[in-house]
Amino acid sequence: MERSQLGADGPEITVVGIGTAPIGSGREWVYWGGQDEHAAVAAIRAGLDAGANWIDTAPFYGWGRAEEIVRRALEGRRDDVLLFTKCGTVPDLERVSRMDNRPEAIRADLEASLRRLGVDHVDLLQIHDLDRGTPIEESWGELQRLREEGKIRWAGLSNHPAELVERAHALAPVTSCQESLSLLEGPKYPDVLETVRRHGIGLLCWAPLASGFLVDGFSTDALEPDDFRRSSPLAARGEEIAAHARDAAARGRTLRRHAVAWVLEQPGVTAAIVGVRNADEGTELPALAAD
Q: Taking the domain 3-289, which CATH number applies?
């Protein structure tokens, strides 16, 4: 699989990486339908066997479930994989989650992730979302301390506006930003796209398949009653999705392949994060990255 350098100082990564949000599915978090853990482990291993060299996860995904599954999948092969996780998201009974990016919270979050993942460091730690109550300089400074201690190798931001990326980058280089990007949706803060290009910051794109809506044959009618996608605003965009499917077919592509290709073609994009839930989806990753 083709590789690209992540930012100015980061590692070389395959242009498609293994996403783990769907395998964190749970009714206490965000429900993507039932997920068998053996199938989840097989999905990750199949993706790695197919050539992907990095995994993106987070403590938020199932409140640790996804990270624990990653640990099982990486038994005996940790040295061959770049491991990316996140920090700052904490449970909130009223709204599922909230952000706490105070330095002490970031440190505690990482320590818990290291225990769940069964490692002494991660390759990339990303602040998962913005916390308006904590100055970015305090949060970003803590990531630099963790880097100096050898607990992380690189540091990044996820879902942050350009202004905060600029402030963090002025303190210490931002290796990467992670933002949503698909044929159906752009980043929450679109101004960040120009910022990453100007500074040579890597750009990792989550939800290139729009949580499954950009997959041939996807139907909300086939989902479990409490699957979050049944109430997604994307469910009302069937005509637009059908148009993208026709475009994909005219190009001789599946809709899934077409959606990932479009993301990878956008200026400044380093790689796309594709969630996998079974071995077949993991094995398919190289085809999604093919020219």
A: 3.20.20.100
